[in-house]
Design goal:
173 residues, alpha/beta, Dihydrofolate Reductase, subunit A, 11 strands, globular
């Protein structure tokens, strides 16, 4: 499994259910990476998508403890790791991307082998964070693009690798 995220200088990812920056090049990167793949996300992240609708051209798997609060048209729902493992058993793990938010990232981080991180060189006001991969023992920076800019905001694309990803397994009774 892989994950994809936009972080600020403090590894912040959002506030009030939205990202602080919308950078067209990052949005194109997200689309290129995830199109035709499965994305795993939380209910609040889904609500932040355009119109609160699932992204076209992808299998949208929404982790939620309360599927009744979700208009489930066009999504697959699950309520935890065991249910997610059951759903994902028919997918190639290279075709599964964790796409947020904070709780879903934290729950699935150790099961991912690659993290695509767009780093924003700014510190906006945020209330949600992503774990700092620069200090986690199994994670290391594998590649980084040159610094880019959009409307005066600097950013770069980074790829991190997990040296010891855990296997998401179906729980047997």
């Amino acid at each position: 499994m892989k994950l994809i995220v936009v972080v600020d200088e403090n590894w912040g990812i959002g506030k009030d259910g939205d990202q602080p920056y919308h950078i067209p090049e990052d949005q194109r990167f997200f689309r290129a990476q995830t199109l035709g793949k499965a994305i795993v996300l939380g209910r609040v992240t889904l609500a932040a998508f355009p119109g609160g609708k699932p992204l076209a051209g992808r299998t949208n798997i929404v982790m939620t403890r309360d599927a009744l609060k979700l208009d489930a048209a066009g999504v697959i729902t699950c309520d935890g790791l065991a249910a997610l493992a059951e759903i994902l058993r028919d997918y190639d793990t290279d075709d599964v991307y964790v796409a947020g938010g904070q709780q879903v990232y934290e729950m699935l981080l150790n099961y991912c082998d690659t993290a695509y991180v767009t780093k924003i060189f700014a510190s906006p006001d945020v209330d949600r964070y992503f774990p700092n991969l620069d200090v986690l023992p199994n994670w290391s920076l594998a590649a980084q693009s040159e610094r880019k800019s959009h409307n005066g905001v600097g950013f770069c694309f980074c790829e991190y690798k997990n040296a010891a990803p855990q296997l998401l397994q179906i729980q047997c009774p």
